[in-house]
Structures are given as C-alpha cells and as structure tokens.
Design a protein that fits this description.
Low-confidence stretches of chain A: 1-20
Oligomer: homodimer
Keywords (chains A, B): DNA-binding, Transcription, Transcription regulation
Strand order of the largest sheet of chain A: 1-3-2
Number of strands of chain A: 3
Number of helices of chain A: 6
Region (Disordered) (chains A, B): 1-21
Largest interface: A-B, 58 and 59 residues
CATH superfamily of the domain at 38-118 in chain A: Winged helix-like DNA-binding domain superfamily/Winged helix DNA-binding domain
CATH class of the domain at 38-118 in chain A: Mainly Alpha
Shape of chain A: globular
Domain HTH hxlR-type (chains A, B): 20-125
GO molecular function (chains A, B): DNA binding
Order of helices and strands of chain A: HHEHHEEHH
Radius of gyration of chain A: 19 Å
Distance between the termini of chain A: 32 Å
CATH architecture of the domain at 38-118 in chain A: Orthogonal Bundle
Mean pLDDT of chain A: 80
InterPro entries (chains A, B): HTH_HxlR (IPR002577), WH-like_DNA-bd_sf (IPR036388), WH_DNA-bd_sf (IPR036390)
Structural class of chain A: mainly alpha
CATH topology of the domain at 38-118 in chain A: Arc Repressor Mutant, subunit A
DNA sequence: CCGCATCCAACGAGATACTG
DNA sequence: CAGTATCTCGTTGGATGCGG
C-alpha cells in the first residue's frame, strides 16, 4: 500500500509530523490486534492490581470466560510481551500470571478509556 | 457514580481483589462493545482530523474495508453517540460523517494507546 | 491444578448485485 | 453517491474430555 496523501491531517501542533494517517492506522491496527478479543481487556484489568494471579484465580474472577479463551488470550498477550507467565514446578502445579512493565504501562491508557466511557452524555449531542 | 459496592453475584465467597474489578469490568465491557470490530478504531482515526468526511472519502481512505463494514461500523458508532451523520438531500446524494463532542474526547485516550503501542520494548522483560 | 485437543455453533466479515 | 440485501466463508468462542 503506497502512501497516498490523505487529507486526514491528524497533525496537532504538539505531535510529530510523522504521525501520518497510515502510520497511525498501522499503529491502530497493532493496538487492535493486541487488544482484540472479547476478554483481553477484562483479563488485563484484573491483572492491573499488580499482583500475580493464578490461572484459577482468573477463572474465578471472570466466571463467564472459558478455560480455552482464558489460556488463549493469556498466551497471546504473553507473546505480545504484555503479560508474564511464571511456572512453579510443584505438585500441584502452580502458574502465576502478571504484567510486564510494558503491560503495566497500559494502565493509564485503559483508565483514560474507562473514564471516557463513563463520560458518555445521555444527550446525543452535535459536534 | 453512586456507591455501588455490592457484589454482582460473582465470587460468592470471600476474597475479591482489593480494587473493585467488577465495576471496572463493566466499564471495560462497555468500551469493548463500543470499540469492537476490526475497523472502528481505524475509522475513528480518520475522523479525528475534525473535518466531516463523506462516505466515499472514508472508502477511499480505507481501501481494505467493504461498504458493508463501513456503513455498519459507522451506524453502530452513530448509535453509540460517537459519530454524527449529516445528510444533504441533494442530487447526487451527499452524506458527511464526523465526530460528536464525546467522540472527539476519545482522541487523547486513543493517542495514549498508540503511544503505548509504539513504546513496545524489544526486550520481553519481567515486571 | 494447569493446560491442551477436538468438535461444533455463532458471528463477523467479505464479495457481489441491486435500489433510491 | 449512498446504502441495502443476500450468500458464503473464515474465524472466534464455547463445551467437553483427556493428559502432565
């Protein structure tokens, strides 16, 4: 996809000019990729406490999720470098999940999103 | 938000995490609902320029999207009060899409997300 | 207790063609 | 130009059962 010059000049004064729509869109797609799925954000939110949580802890915290989805999303986020997986070779087995530093750095951004969601006006307003 | 410190039927017993994950989870799910889909964020990003864009403008800006998806996501966001739809009864027809004030207020949060994505370290570190 | 594999249902999403 | 309708397909997600 070659770069056509868009009119979508998202170029506020404070932002670098390299924030072109296509780069931005790529970034957007990266974000979408990493946060896609019905459960990623929910899992993340339970991890934002900063403590390591066991698999069963997460299962208990999110009753609506299936094991498959839980492990799947967890693994994907681990691959993305968002969550950590700590295996204790014990009997019975014990695996704890937590956030990487980068994953923790997501917290304020998500919080902004949450606040945005809560700020929804009941009045369908105009731009 | 009033003091909704009650449990919602989750975790019948004992030891919920310290920071109210349930209230938060609800908010998270709202966000997920409103921003889900492969194209919402991309469309939003093209709308953040602040100018009204025609349907065909968006089609041109996002070549990979189909008309069906474009109109669908647009309508959903309109229902959610994120985007505006301005119909000019002319020949040929002309419909312009833009952001509501609330939709525009999403910009910084998304920007934070973008910056987070760009800040991904090559080194998968531990917390 | 943790995780994987398989089967299966339900949407999401794309292509195409048609209408106002 | 803007939007709708229909069909199909791939993916996501859920249920269950087994293995370390």
């Amino acid at each position: 996809m070659a770069s056509t010059h868009e009119k979508v000049g998202y170029a506020p004064e404070g932002k670098p000019p390299e924030h072109t729509p296509f780069t931005a869109a790529s970034g957007v797609e990266s974000v979408v990729r990493m946060l896609e799925g019905r459960w990623k954000l929910v899992i993340l939110f339970h991890l934002f406490g900063g403590k390591l949580l066991r698999f069963s802890d997460l299962e208990r915290a999110i009753p609506a999720i299936s094991q498959k989805m839980l492990i799947q999303q967890l693994r994907q986020m681990e691959s993305d470098g968002i969550v950590t997986r700590l295996v204790h070779h014990q009997v019975p087995p014990k695996v704890e999940y937590g956030l990487t530093a980068w994953g923790q750095s997501l917290c304020p951004a998500l919080d902004a999103l949450l606040q945005w969601a809560e700020a929804r006006p009941a009045d369908p307003d105009a731009p």
